[in-house]
């Protein structure tokens, strides 16, 4: 008894029918045993290696081109790069504008300490080495006076610049 | 022109026709089609779909898409063939996905033929389809030789002599339903024997 003498099961009968339909019509709405169908496709392929008949091939081309839309033009890469560079430059310019408008106002230009103040500081520094108390007091009083003057000029400049 | 897909002469040939086709020259596109459609069909679409009618439809769709998107193609020192093969693979996948709707009987056999050739195939053999056919035919003969005579006869009648079901049933002196079961069993036996003689790669996504 060979394997094909065995009685087919109901499932096998159904599979055989679906396979027969698929091999004849190329359609099998209810599914098909793919292992057998794959083997059948290979056997058919082996006859001519999948050769395309020239006439059939030409018809396929004609139909394909009749359905085709004109080629879509895409910007070439260099134009894309130029576009990206342009966008980057515009972004950088916008950034600088924003930063500039939001930046704090320029600092006030403060007056330099006057020569008198520097001399008073020097006199006070040297007077501390003196023994005479009066000379020390005079030098410190002169320094206080020059410092107060300079402070006054400084505050006046700041008030003028910032209004407070 | 050499059969090597990346031969500089072939690349120049491709580039010239692609440029003309981009400018709307359909004759140039037809030249590309005639050069590459046979290999796309035999090497990609038929093995992935296992259904000649579906493979022909997919071939048309592949070249329609290629024509429309030709402007986006960049050669990168390889033949246009590989770009077309990628489009074709996607078309085959689409067809497998749509199978439930279309009811098409599709069955990939690329995992059966893969062990017969190098993967990827030798570039110089890419467009030499005759060599493939000879290898497949020899393997089929070897496998058929190992089948029991009744299975072998059923397969030869149906797929080598290309007879219809009724004629096959008559030739074998069985009822039509019996022949259907016989051919199902014969094909399964063939596949099993193929796997042991030639080998079988795991199914790909397109199967």
Question: How are the SSEs placed, and which strands pair?
Answer:
The complex is a heterodimer of chains A (164) and B (207).
Chain A: H1 10-25, H2 34-48, H3 54-67, H4 77-102, H5 115-127, H6 133-162
Chain B: H1 8-22, H2 26-49, H3 52-68, H4 80-97, H5 99-102, H6 110-113, H7 129-146, H8 149-160, H9 165-172, H10 176-197
Helix pairs in contact in B: 1-2, 2-3, 2-4, 3-4, 7-10, 8-9, 8-10, 9-10
Features:
heterodimer; A: 164 residues; mainly alpha; rod-shaped; B: 207 residues; 10 helices; 69% helix; 0% strand; elongated
Show the largest interface: A-B, 55 and 74 residues
* Largest sheet data of chain A: none
Radius of gyration of chain B: 20 Å
Q: Give the mean pLDDT of chain B.
A: 90
Strand content of chain B: under 5%
Spatial gap, N to C terminus of chain B = 35 Å
How widely separated are the two ends of chain A? 116 Å
Tell me what the structure shows.
The complex is a heterodimer of chains A (164) and B (207). Chain A has helices at 10-25, 34-48, 54-67, 77-102, 115-127, 133-162. With 164 residues, chain A is mainly alpha-helical. Chain A is rod-shaped, with a radius of gyration of 50 Å. Chain A starts with 9 loop residues before the first helix and ends with a helix. The model of chain A has no long low-confidence stretch (mean pLDDT 80). Chain B is mostly helical and 207 residues long. Helices cover 69% and strands 0% of the residues of chain B. Chain B contains ten helices and no strands. Chain B has helices spanning 8-22, 26-49, 52-68, 80-97, 99-102, 110-113, 129-146, 149-160, 165-172, 176-197. The mean pLDDT of chain B is 90. The chains are: A mainly alpha (164), B mainly alpha (207).
Short précis:
The complex is a heterodimer of chains A (164) and B (207). Chain A is 70% helix and 0% strand.
């Amino acid at each position: 008894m060979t394997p094909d003498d065995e009685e087919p099961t109901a499932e096998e009968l159904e599979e055989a029918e679906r396979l027969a339909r698929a091999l004849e019509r190329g359609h099998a709405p209810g599914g098909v045993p793919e292992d057998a169908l794959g083997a059948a496709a290979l056997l058919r392929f082996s006859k001519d290696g999948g050769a395309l008949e020239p006439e059939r091939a030409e018809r396929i081309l004609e139909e394909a081109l009749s359905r085709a839309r004109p080629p879509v033009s895409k910007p070439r890469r260099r134009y894309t790069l130029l576009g990206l560079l342009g966008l980057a430059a515009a972004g950088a310019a916008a950034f600088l504008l924003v930063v500039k408008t939001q930046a704090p106002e320029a600092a006030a230009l403060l007056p330099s300490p006057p020569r008198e103040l520097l001399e008073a500081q020097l006199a006070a520094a040297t007077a501390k080495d003196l023994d005479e108390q009066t000379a020390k007091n005079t030098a410190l009083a002169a320094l206080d006076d020059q410092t107060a003057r300079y402070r006054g000029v400084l505050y006046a400049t700041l008030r003028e610049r910032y209004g407070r | 022109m050499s059969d090597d897909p990346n031969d500089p002469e072939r690349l120049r040939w491709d580039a010239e026709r692609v440029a003309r086709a981009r400018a709307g020259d359909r004759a140039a596109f037809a030249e590309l089609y005639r050069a590459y459609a046979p290999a796309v069909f035999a090497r990609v679409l038929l093995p992935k779909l296992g259904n000649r009618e579906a493979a022909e439809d997919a071939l048309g769709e592949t070249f329609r898409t290629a024509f429309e998107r030709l402007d986006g193609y960049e050669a990168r020192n390889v033949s246009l063939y590989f770009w077309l093969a990628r489009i074709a693979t996607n078309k085959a996948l689409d067809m497998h996905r749509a199978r439930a709707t279309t009811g098409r009987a599709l069955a990939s056999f690329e995992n059966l033929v893969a062990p017969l050739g190098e993967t990827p195939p030798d570039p110089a053999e890419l467009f030499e389809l005759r060599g493939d056919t000879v290898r497949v035919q020899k393997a089929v003969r070897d496998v058929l030789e190992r089948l029991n005579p009744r299975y072998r006869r059923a397969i030869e009648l149906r797929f080598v002599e290309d007879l219809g079901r009724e004629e096959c049933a008559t030739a074998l002196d069985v009822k039509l339903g019996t022949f259907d079961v016989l051919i199902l069993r014969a094909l399964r036996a063939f596949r099993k024997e193929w796997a042991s003689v030639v080998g079988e790669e795991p199914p790909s996504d397109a199967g």
